[in-house]
């Protein structure tokens, strides 16, 4: 009887099939890649029946999209928490770099999961594959739009050009960090961003 009660409690507290599928997919996709991971591997890790995967997500590609959207949501939440007490636009901009520097060792220097996903689909051939690339682009658009808004607040004029430059620094820092297995490239990218923010306003109208 006691064993049955313990089993009942453990089942009640167990994450839902959707949560388990997404957690397993996140662990596998972020550490080993997307295309190399098959449906059966995800199902075994999640302890979920194949029918549940198709009823909940419809396909592996849809699960990949959910994985990327979840990563994006988590990234935005961590950024909001990091910048909650900041008022200066410059500090909020540099927080993008600080967050990447902090997270690089935690992810074992695997670089940007968004960049990695896009690299696996250089020529998307179906609507679902195009959906995967679009999920990556949604994260990038949010990053660039946020940087543009902060630069506009800082400078008093549209900051879209500088935002593009900052995104290049960030992309390069993430790629370099993955190759060097260190935060050196990201720290250099942060220094470049700080120099850009400290430079006199440039005339981009020419």
Automatic annotation (TrEMBL):
A molecular function GO annotation: DNA binding
Family matches, as InterPro entries: Homeodomain-like_sf, HTH_TetR, Tet_transcr_reg_TetR-rel_C_sf
One Pfam match: TetR_N
Source taxon at top rank: Bacteria
Stretches that traverse the bilayer: none
Coiled coil ranges: none
PANTHER family, A to Z: HTH-TYPE TRANSCRIPTIONAL REGULATOR YJDC, TRANSCRIPTIONAL REGULATORY PROTEIN
Name assigned to this protein: Putative transcriptional regulator
Lineage of the species this protein comes from: Bacteria, Bacillati, Actinomycetota, Actinomycetes, Mycobacteriales
């Amino acid at each position: 009887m006691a064993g049955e009660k313990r089993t009942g409690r453990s089942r009640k507290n167990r994450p839902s099939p959707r949560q388990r599928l997404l957690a397993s997919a996140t662990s596998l996709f972020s550490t080993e890649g997307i295309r190399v991971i098959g449906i059966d591997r995800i199902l075994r890790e999640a302890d979920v029946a194949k029918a549940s995967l198709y009823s909940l997500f419809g396909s592996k590609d849809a699960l990949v999209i959910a994985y990327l959207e979840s990563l994006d949501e988590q990234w935005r939440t961590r950024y909001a928490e990091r910048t909650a007490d900041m008022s200066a636009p410059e500090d909020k901009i540099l927080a993008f770099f600080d967050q990447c520097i902090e997270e690089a060792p935690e992810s074992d220097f695997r670089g940007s999961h968004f960049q990695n996903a896009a690299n696996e689909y250089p020529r998307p051939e179906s609507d679902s594959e195009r959906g995967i690339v679009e999920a990556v682009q949604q994260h990038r658009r949010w990053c660039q739009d946020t940087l543009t808004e902060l630069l506009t607040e800082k400078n008093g004029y549209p900051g879209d050009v500088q935002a593009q430059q900052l995104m290049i620094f960030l992309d390069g820092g993430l790629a370099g960090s993955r190759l060097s297995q260190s935060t050196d490239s990201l720290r250099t990218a942060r220094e470049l961003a700080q120099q850009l923010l400290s430079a006199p306003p440039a005339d981009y109208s020419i």
